[in-house]
Amino acid sequence: MQEPLLRDPGPDYDTFPEEPPSPTAARPAKAPQNKRLFLAAFAAVLGNFSFGFALVYTSPVIPALESSPNSALHMTKVESSWFGSVFTLGAAAGGLSAMLLNDLLGRKLSIMFSALPSAAGYALMAGASRLWMLLLGRTLTGFAGGLTAACIPVYVSEISHPRVRGALGATPQIMAVFGSLSLYALGLKLPWRWLAVAGEVPVLVMILLLCFMPDSPRFLLSQGKDEEALRALAWLRGKDADICQEFQQIQETAQSRNGRMSWAEIKDPFVYKPIFISVLMRFLQQLTGVTPILVYLQSIFKGTAGFLLPEYDAAIVGAVRLVSVLIAAATMDKAGRKILLFVSASVMFAANLALGLYVLLTAPREIHNGTVPHPGGALGDPGSVAAPESPNYITLIPLIATMLFIMGYAMGWGPITWLLMSEVLPLKARGVASGLCVLVSWLTAFALTKAFLLVVEDFGLEVPFLFFAAICLVNLIFTGCCVPETKGRTLEQIEHFFRTGRWLLVK
């Protein structure tokens, strides 16, 4: 095997330097490199902002429409469950389409294409006069979310320098969280139609910025566009950066992995092992319960007789989620991926267990004709919850437990599953496999979100949370047995690990 070309002492882009570069040599090129790279990443992850905004759109809207006097828009429990879950069905379709578009159009154009269904979906919901318009709009925004969830992490990973790939790899999750928090905050002031209008803004800004951004150099090289790839890499790294080593290394990798993946190659452990890890991580990520919790957040707080108003609880949880994912981004390249996954699963287990036990132990032993408040009863049912006559601080447990769950998720299993998917998948399979990951993820989310209200109605709110707690234990075992540590590794080194079982050492 040819030795990796990492020895030419570039002033700001020497991944594994033999000698520490002098301060005077490193400073001039670092700023423009980072500014351009971060601008390209920001332009792309605006799609994740829109995704996060659309995902939790139902949280303030379902309670409003369930009590709406307009018979054409009034929602029953069954219709509410469809309105909450159809987004994930659209996202699964978006992930399926990404399996083709990621390699057909490229990463950047696929992200830009997602703006069409997103804008159309928000317009339908803003002007809805019938329930079918709300459901179709929700499906279209879900399709756009599934497409961006598959394309954006791959794009960001492929344009990033190894030293900042962990931090930039967390930006899709950060922006999705920021989008959700923005929805919760705006929901305190704006009616539901104007929330849909506000959702159009990040979509339009994303399209405008991406028009001026380059495509992924790795994708361009895989398409035989060497000169365009060189220009793209030079733009991303800055005019003073020495990109010869990096370009040659990526070029050699792209040439050796060129062409479409055949069915015979799937039998190669180098291919199926990272695909298996990525798909199973996305599957287990959804089974922790994050999507139904976010979609029905206000209804959950309403069903647990919380100390604060449900809309304020939701906004607090959104703020905690944003702070947590920022902490994860800052520590990911220092602490490592696996340690954060362990901490994340442990915190989520404790939070889900606490919330499940709270509902189980505070539910009255006898319920007569549904007149006694029952935290485990139907979500959002005004007759099922009675506000406490005097302050009862034990009712803060649902808020604290949910905050801990979101904190744990946002520090590990939220951003790292997105990042690892884009890191471990081989270049030849990256476009198709990332779409497969999103497809599996959102089909799982659809099943959970659709069944959540029905399970709560029949068995009580404690049952899904105790199930989610058990899944978090499975996540701990899976992390220890199957997930490799990719901190500080180039994408080429990670591919070498799955091909040989050994990390490529560079002296």
What does this structure look like?
- This protein has 507 residues and is an all-alpha fold.
- It has two domains: 34-213, Up-down Bundle (Growth Hormone, Chain: A), CATH 1.20.1250; 265-363 and 393-506, MFS general substrate transporter like domains (Growth Hormone, Chain: A, Up-down Bundle), CATH 1.20.1250.20.
- The protein is built from 22 helices and no strands.
- The chain has helices spanning 23-55, 58-66, 77-104, 107-113, 115-126, 131-159, 165-169, 171-187, 192-210, 217-222, 226-237, 244-256, 269-287, 290-295, 297-303, 310-335, 337-362, 397-411, 415-424, 427-459, 462-482, 491-500.
- Helix 1 packs antiparallel against helix 9 (192-210) and helix 13 runs parallel beside helix 20 (427-459).
- The chain is globular and about 65 Å long.
- Belongs to the major facilitator superfamily. Sugar transporter (TC 2.A.1.1) family.
- Residues 40-487 form the Major facilitator superfamily (MFS) profile domain.
- One of its GO terms (biological process) is regulation of glycolytic process.
- InterPro entries: MFS_dom, MFS_sugar_transport-like, MFS_trans_sf, MFS_Trehalose_Transporter, Sugar/inositol_transpt, Sugar_transporter_CS.
